[in-house]
Design goal:
The complex is a heterodimer.
Chain A: E1 3-9, E2 11-12, E3 24-25, H1 31-45, E4 51-59, H2 69-80, E5 82-93, H3 100-109, E6 113-119, H4 123-128, H5 135-148, E7 153-159, H6 166-178, E8 183-188, H7 196-202, H8 211-227, E9 231-234, E10 237-239, H9 246-252, E11 257-260, E12 265-268, E13 271-275, H10 279-287, E14 293-298, H11 301-312, E15 319-320, H12 321-328, H13 332-335, H14 337-345, E16 349-352, E17 355-358, H15 360-364, H16 366-374
Parallel strand pairs in A: 1-4, 1-11, 2-3, 4-5, 5-6, 6-7, 7-8
Antiparallel strand pairs in A: 8-10, 9-10, 12-13, 13-14, 15-17, 16-17
Helix pairs in contact in A: 1-2, 1-10, 2-3, 6-8
Chain B: H1 2-19, E1 23-30, H2 36-46, H3 64-69, E2 78-84, E3 87-95, H4 103-111, E4 115-121, H5 128-139, E5 143-149, H6 158-169, H7 187-197, E6 210-219, E7 223-232, E8 234-236, E9 240-243, E10 249-251, E11 254-258, E12 262-265, E13 267-269, E14 273-277, E15 291-294, E16 313-319, H8 325-338, E17 343-349, E18 353-360, H9 363-376, E19 381-383, E20 390-394, E21 399-402, E22 414-428, H10 433-442, E23 446-454, E24 457-465, H11 466-469, H12 473-480, E25 486-496, E26 499-506, E27 509-510, E28 516-519, H13 520-537, E29 545-551, E30 554-561, H14 577-592, E31 595-597, E32 600-602, H15 604-609
Parallel strand pairs in B: 1-3, 1-4, 4-5
Antiparallel strand pairs in B: 2-3, 6-7, 6-15, 7-14, 8-13, 9-10, 9-15, 11-12, 11-14, 16-18, 16-19, 17-18, 20-21, 20-22, 22-24, 22-25, 23-24, 26-27, 26-28, 26-29, 29-30, 31-32
Helix pairs in contact in B: 2-7
The chains are: A alpha/beta, B alpha+beta.
Chain lengths: 375, 614
């Protein structure tokens, strides 16, 4: 089966206040060294017998990579793997760091999907959470991308941001739909430990909207996007027909993928692994001709079953009871009869033919449902 | 050969004459924190009983919990040598537990003495506990030596303290030793006063053995060790002794004294304080207050005052993790080895699983046992609300004593219910009298007396149900008086009362571990408070959970935990599945610690949180 490749680019111009991803601001002088290491890491995994059907360049901010980097990465990946003709190749971009030159380069390199981090169209909110762009930047970026020939564009938006109101979410969604994005990811802000935002909320300097308000924003997005012809195919992801992100889906369906770059995660041969997070350590490991892996873990059969449930239930299609029976010799209908009956009665899950899936209501408490099914 | 024996015997007679004359048996009574253990340490140090390098602070408190809380639970006696005016004196100090839960043990310790040192803190004055212990000492005809302690503190007021002792207790204070146990000031005065003031024992050395057990503990090698005061006669290794209450006989394997380590001796004679070992399997055989005599020459009458101590406070004890039941059982067995007053029987709760119904002498005793189980045996416990022993007369004339709400019969079959009452003695600065009277009234107290002892102290006496005291009363008392009030209580029998069983229902099912027996007039208030609290501490579930408080079929309070509607709509970024799974693993472990009533998951904290509601 074809695999995916994830490429991590951990540099940012500035760090957003809510972000706890592996990304660094003010380390641009490391870009060249990092890039050389990354190219070398690709060859460490290289095997022309391996088919690749998705490539995802995420960050950090991949759009601030020096000109020429993306095309070099793509050339290197094609040299080392068998990238399929219809592969989905995505790059993440910040609205304020795309130029028509970059877009053209990406397009020529074979990138066919763009993911833009808008988060909100409200300038005050953007400023509050430390985003370095505004609504005009977004419009400019989308229109530029279209003129260069990108037809598959995703926009990330966040709900539950400080001082955010339902009206802000409405305006943001209007903007995204107006510019005809094929895909929208709607995430609910997670207040992560050790982020500036966390400390601001803890000290009372900022307040997040109440749980019900955030839920209201989410439900609005759900309803609005459906009306506009987007289908929710995963808990946080909406797409026009045939524009579902393959890369995303493969993760939820436990396909294998190689993670490249500092802090990237991968899943190959039943082993989940993660790379060193520090840029310096990552570079130095590769320069010593060792894979920059900080941890790896063989996933046993029980854990595989748990992951199959945990990840599969994120998709609208849900989990296949027959496949689970075949692969793990576990009949959930029997072993979890009481739990399934309760969850069904409470309107949180449904079973249709072979698939068990979360309802809209169920998606709001998905973690709990997963917990019930794997405990 | 014969001559030798004769001389020895003669010599022994000579020693006997002065033996008891130069013995002083005494104890120290004081309120918690007034410095009892510190003074004991100084006395030991001053008489060179232990080399200074071996001294650790508060030598006689042998348990960690005792040292931490600054209270003494277990008594450790010590024998000291002291020289005065060319004579050698044997001073036997018997330390007493400074808490009302152990009143009976205190009384037996006092019965083993001729004198008592009464320590009063020069900065605090006379407290409830002080008074209670003085009365106990007077009941046992003890000579009392007041000692004013903590004179090194800037806030010490020696003259005022003397007046208080004279006014409140009625003891003359002309030449009382004024000391600082902490600094070691004037300790010699105390030793001199002990020799001069306290009478020597007046036992009959020739009479049959009568030894009073004032405490016992379990030793892995020696078995149950009896701490005794020899009143009459003598005992030595090889003697066959008899316990008067059980009638059981044992062969003595060792006798000795405490220095304060156990030190073997050839024999113990009238007037001595020491220990007897006789390969006794557990401390239930060696009951405090019992008399030991010799099997082949028994005494005509045992010593007076023996009483079987019964638990007065009860609580269910369960493990947070259900599979730890056997560990809990082992731990209780081990504690029981050393604590004859701890009682327990297996209990099965629908909500909490397998555990034990335990009986304690009082609230402190309960706290200590729970703390020792958690600390020494590394157990995570859930305890149910403490209860007392209720007496129920059924319509068919049958009389029951119940301490577990689960055992309460149907209302229709109850003719009469009675509950244990206590007389409560509170000492407080006058500022807090109003607040404390309100508290006592809220707790169904009947006012008996209020006395202004001086400008800064009042004594409040109330009669109230024990079941009102065991529920957070002490903490309330302390918080309403900013820590200044002190409390003491004694059981004064049973009185008729209108009591009901209050059930808590979660999603329509009774949670047995939350049931309570309360007074009818307080049921509404308590039911509401518990329902409100549970609403806060039980996390939202996947469905709406009604919480009801009910008496029989009648619902008296209701709250609703709304269904959980937002859990996580979170990004699973960079394919970091490992992190997500770790989080899930953690939640799974948390779920395992939850208790289930029907489909409702209840965290163990919920059971604990309701113990703090009034």
């Amino acid at each position: 089966m074809a695999i995916g490749i994830y490429v991590h680019f951990p540099f940012c111009v500035s760090k957003c206040l809510y972000c706890n991803f592996n990304s660094y601001a003010g380390k641009n002088d490391m870009q060249i060294k990092y890039f050389s290491a990354l190219i070398k890491e690709i060859s460490m995994y290289g095997d022309k017998k391996i088919d690749v059907d998705t490539i995802y360049m995420g960050g950090g901010t991949p759009s601030i990579m020096f000109d020429g980097c993306v095309s070099t990465i793509m050339t290197e990946i094609r040299k080392n793997f068998n990238v399929l003709d219809d592969a989905e190749i995505t790059i993440e971009a910040n609205p304020n760091s795309v130029t028509s030159m970059k877009l053209s380069e990406w397009k020529d390199a074979g990138v066919n999907r763009l993911s833009i981090g808008l988060q909100s169209s409200n300038a005050n909110i953007l400023k509050l959470i430390g985003r370095p762009h505004n609504k005009a930047d977004y419009i400019n970026a989308v229109e530029m991308a279209k003129s260069v020939g990108f037809s598959n564009i995703n926009t990330d938006i966040l709900v539950g941001l400080p001082r955010q109101k339902l009206s802000d979410v409405k305006k943001t969604l209007d903007l995204v739909v107006k510019h005809n994005c094929t895909h929208v990811s709607v995430y609910s802000l997670i207040l992560e430990d050790n982020t500036p935002l966390y400390n601001m909320v803890a000290s009372g300097e900022l307040h997040l909207p109440k749980e019900e308000k955030t839920l209201g924003m989410y439900n609005y997005a759900l309803k609005f996007l459906r009306e506009k012809g987007y289908e929710r195919y995963e808990v946080s992801n909406f797409a026009r027909p045939d524009y579902e992100s393959k890369h995303n889906m493969h993760t939820w369906q436990m396909h294998e993928y190689i993670g490249l770059g500092a802090g990237a995660n991968g899943y190959m041969d039943g082993i989940r692994y993660g790379n060193l997070e520090s840029i310096e350590e990552y570079v130095s490991a590769i320069n010593n001709n060792t894979k920059p892996i900080s941890f790896s873990e063989k996933i046993n059969s029980k854990e595989q079953l748990e992951e199959t449930i945990m990840l599969g239930l994120r998709t609208a299609r849900g989990i296949s009871l027959n496949e689970i029976k075949k692969q793990f010799k576990v009949d959930l209908i029997k072993s979890k009869a009481e739990t399934i009956a309760n969850l069904t009665q409470w309107g949180l899950i449904k079973i249709d033919k072979d698939y068990l899936f979360a309802t809209d209501l169920g998606f709001t408490v998905l973690n709990k449902i997963i917990l019930e099914l794997i405990s | 050969m014969n001559l030798y024996i004769l001389i020895l015997t003669n010599n022994k007679c000579g020693v006997t004459m002065s033996r008891q004359k130069n013995i002083r048996n005494f104890c120290i009574v004081a309120h918690i924190d007034h410095g009892k253990s510190t003074l004991a340490d100084r006395l030991i140090e001053m008489t060179n009983t232990i080399a200074k390098r071996d001294m650790t602070e508060q030598m006689l408190d042998s348990m960690d919990i005792e040292k931490e809380r600054g209270i003494t639970i277990k008594l450790t006696p010590t024998t000291m040598k002291y020289h005065l005016d060319g004579e050698e004196y044997t001073l036997n100090l018997i330390d007493t537990p400074g808490h009302v839960d152990f009143t009976y043990e205190v009384s037996r310790s006092l019965a083993a003495c001729e004198g008592a040192i009464l320590i009063v803190d020069a900065t605090q004055g006379v407290e409830a506990q002080t008074l209670a212990n003085v009365y106990l000492a007077l009941e046992n005809d003890l000579e009392i030596l007041p000692v004013i302690n903590k004179i090194d503190l800037p806030s010490a007021d020696i003259e005022k303290t003397k007046h208080e002792i004279e006014d409140v207790i009625g003891l003359p204070c002309d030449n009382v030793p004024c000391v600082s146990a902490k600094c070691g000031t004037n300790i010699e005065d105390v030793l001199r006063a002990v020799v001069r003031l306290f009478p020597s024992p007046k036992g009959e050395e020739k009479a049959p053995l009568r030894a009073l057990i004032f405490d016992s503990y379990y030793d892995n090698f020696k078995g149950a060790v009896c701490l005794v005061r020899i009143v009459d006669g003598g005992v030595k290794k090889g003697d066959t002794i008899r316990f008067c209450t059980t009638g059981r006989d044992y062969e003595v394997t060792e006798v000795g004294i405490f220095t304060p380590k156990t030190t073997e001796k050839d024999e113990l004679l009238a007037g001595d304080v020491g220990y007897i070992c006789a390969s006794i399997k557990n401390v239930s055989e060696t009951r405090v207050g019992d008399t030991i005599t010799l099997a082949d020459n028994p005494c005509a009458e045992p010593l007076p005052g023996y009483k079987e101590v019964k638990p007065v406070v009860f609580s269910g004890i369960f493990c947070v993790e259900g599979d730890k039941y056997n560990d809990l059982k082992d731990a209780l067995e081990k504690l029981k080895l050393n604590d004859a007053s701890l009682e327990y029987v297996p209990e099965v709760s629908q909500a909490l699983g397998f555990g034990f119904r335990c009986g304690f002498l009082g609230l402190l005793h309960m706290d200590i046992i729970q703390e020792r189980l958690e600390r020494e045996f590394d157990l995570d416990l859930i305890t149910t609300a403490p209860t007392v022993n209720y007496r129920i007369t059924k319509t068919n004339g049958e009389v029951l004593e119940i301490s577990n709400p689960a055992d309460m019969p149907e209302t229709q079959s109850i003719a009469l219910m009675e509950e244990p009452m206590v007389k409560v003695n509170i000492f407080t600065p006058p500022t807090y009298v109003g607040e404390l009277m309100q508290l006592c009234q809220d707790r169904r107290g009947i006012h008996i007396d209020l006395q202004y002892l001086d400008a800064s102290r009042c004594q409040l006496i109330y009669k109230m149900p024990l079941n009102e005291i065991i529920f957070d009363f002490f903490d309330e008392l302390k918080s309403r008086s900013r820590g200044y009030a002190s409390l003491d209580y004694e059981l004064v029998g049973y009185e008729e009362s209108s009591l009901v069983k209050l059930d808590i229902l979660l999603n329509g099912e009774v949670c047995d571990a939350l049931s309570l027996i309360v007074h009818k007039d307080k049921a509404y208030q308590r039911g509401r408070a518990i329902a409100e609290k549970l609403k806060d501490v039980i996390p939202r579930q996947l469905f709406e959970v009604p919480i009801q408080a009910a008496i029989g079929n009648k619902v008296i309070a209701r709250e609703t935990i709304k269904a959980l509607r937002k859990d996580v709509l979170a990004k699973c970024y960079g394919g970091d599945i490992t992190r997500k799974r770790k989080l899930l693993e953690k939640q799974k472990r948390g779920k395992k610690r939850m208790r289930k009533i029907g489909s409702v998951e209840i965290p163990s904290e919920a059971f604990i949180s309701i113990l703090k509601i009034d």
